[in-house]
Amino acid sequence: MANESRPCPCDIGDRFDYGGRGQEVQVEHIEAYVCKPASTDKAVIVIHDIFGWQLPNTRYMADMLAANGYIAICPDFFAGKEPWKPSDDWSKFDDWLKTRDARKINKEADAVLKYLKEQCGAKKLGVVGFCWGGVAVRHLMMTYPELKAGVSLYGLVKDSDDISNLLNPTFFIFAEKDDFIPLHQVTLLEQKLKKNCKVDYKVKIYPGQTHGFVHRKREDINPQDKPYIEEGRKDMINWLNKYV
């Protein structure tokens, strides 16, 4: 279970020293980071974790998707509210989180989808998200039929959550040694999906990995983790390639 003195569903891991290859743009009431390949009508919305849309790690992932042929956009789904900082008072985290509900982002999603379609010529759309963003992905995949594929990476799961009403194929990535997402909750999620979900889905647990491993671990630090970090990233891209 999560340490009560640090009730955080996303540890900071490694903060990449990375500047990004895209640009920041204004999308109606929010800012966003966009990275575009030469020419494509495929786009992926990248949803940040609690540390916000400007975190270099998340931009690194957006650029990786762009390098694989997608317009990648990472909007500020906090809509101008401050992201969490590792130096903040963890005793206030729960109150902070209540003001940033990952299931109340439709206004931002509407703006981003309109921008992708009208300004970028996107016709095929997908979404990926990390931790807080993983929860947001689940919400969007039950709300927007135009999102043809979703990848939810270590989004916090509650026993009461039921996400069987997915509209399109969704891939769920979890870490075996995640301090914040007990494996019994992953098992329960899988049971609910197996019983009720009417679209393609996949739930995968990566051995020996901890929360945030796909975007928060530098693959060159622990050699034993590198294969799983690379596998998680490859699996994410392969899922998008299959359905978007």
Automatic annotation (TrEMBL):
<protein>
    <recommendedName>
        <fullName>Carboxymethylenebutenolidase homolog</fullName>
    </recommendedName>
</protein>
<dbReference type="InterPro" id="IPR042946">
    <property type="entry name" value="CMBL"/>
</dbReference>
<dbReference type="InterPro" id="IPR002925">
    <property type="entry name" value="Dienelactn_hydro"/>
</dbReference>
<dbReference type="GO" id="GO:0005829">
    <property type="term" value="C:cytosol"/>
</dbReference>
<dbReference type="Pfam" id="PF01738">
    <property type="entry name" value="DLH"/>
</dbReference>
<keyword id="KW-0378">Hydrolase</keyword>
<comment type="similarity">
    <text>Belongs to the dienelactone hydrolase family.</text>
</comment>
<feature type="domain" description="Dienelactone hydrolase">
    <location>
        <begin position="30"/>
        <end position="243"/>
    </location>
</feature>
<keyword id="KW-0963">Cytoplasm</keyword>
<dbReference type="GO" id="GO:0016787">
    <property type="term" value="F:hydrolase activity"/>
</dbReference>
<dbReference type="InterPro" id="IPR029058">
    <property type="entry name" value="AB_hydrolase_fold"/>
</dbReference>
